[in-house]
Specification:
The chain has 213 residues and is of the alpha+beta class. Helix content is 30%, strand content 32%. It is globular. Helix 3 crosses helix 5. The protein contains 5 helices and 6 strands. The protein has a 5-stranded mixed beta barrel with strand order 1-3-4-5-6. It folds into 2 domains: 113 residues, Archaeosine Trna-guanine Transglycosylase, Chain: A, domain 4, CATH 2.30.130; 77 residues, LON domain-like fold, CATH 1.10.4060.
Length: 213
């Protein structure tokens, strides 16, 4: 008998035109009233919020804009840095944690989305098979180039264990590759990290990205 999934009630959501992957880094500029208090509260209490990709609508709500529609799976985000450069503006950096499925969704009167969610199991740690090692080697090379060009960037450390983990390598490529939002969402939702990396390797081959190019 499978154990019941852990749940979170009334998790505040931040709908975006992006997909946050576990282990990823997400910078945010927060200025909408509906998010300012939520982000400040999460930072003060150390509580997470949920990042969910928009299936329709816009990140910034307008009176005449289309209704926001959200995908049913997202990722917990926890604030790692926050600055307030001026009143009404927060500069935030978040880290992606566990994925979740939205069970019930509602929008509060001031526009903030909240949801009762079920947390999904973390990806299994699976060593990268020999036929997919090129994906990890190419990623390490790209990260090294980016560190040289932008030393202040929030790139992951050069950790051998991470570069031998199917989920971690697949997730980092999903963040780097110029993919449609719907493709990123589908890859994030996959429960098998080996399959996710296999699909990423196919994308790399189509774009002729190899350790030597």
């Amino acid at each position: 008998m499978q154990p019941a999934p852990l749940t979170l009630q009334s998790l505040p959501l931040f709908p975006l035109n992006t997909v946050l992957f576990p282990g990823g880094v997400l910078p945010l500029q927060v200025f909408e009233v509906r998010y300012l208090n939520m982000i400040a509260t999460c930072h003060r209490t150390g509580a997470p919020f949920g990042v969910v990709a928009l299936s329709s609508g816009h990140e910034v709500r307008t009176p005449t804009g289309p209704q926001e529609q959200l995908h049913t799976m997202g990722t917990l985000a926890r604030i790692t840095q926050m600055e307030r450069p001026q009143p009404g503006l927060l500069m935030v950096q978040c880290g992606g944690e566990q994925r979740f499925h939205i069970d019930t969704l509602s929008r509060l009167p001031h526009g903030l989305w909240v949801a009762d969610v079920s947390l999904l199991p973390s990806d299994d740690t699976i060593a990268i098979p020999a036929d997919l090692r090129h994906a990890a080697e190419s990623l390490r090379r790209v990260h090294a180039q980016l560190r040289t060009r932008t030393p202040q960037s929030n790139l992951p450390t050069d950790d051998d264990a991470a570069y031998n983990d199917c989920a971690w390598v697949a997730n980092r490529w999903c963040e780097l590759l110029p993919l449609p939002l719907s493709t990123r969402q589908q890859l994030m939702a996959l429960g098998n990290p080996l399959v996710r990396l296999e699909l990423v390797a196919d994308l790399l081959e189509r774009q002729q990205i190899t350790p030597d190019h």
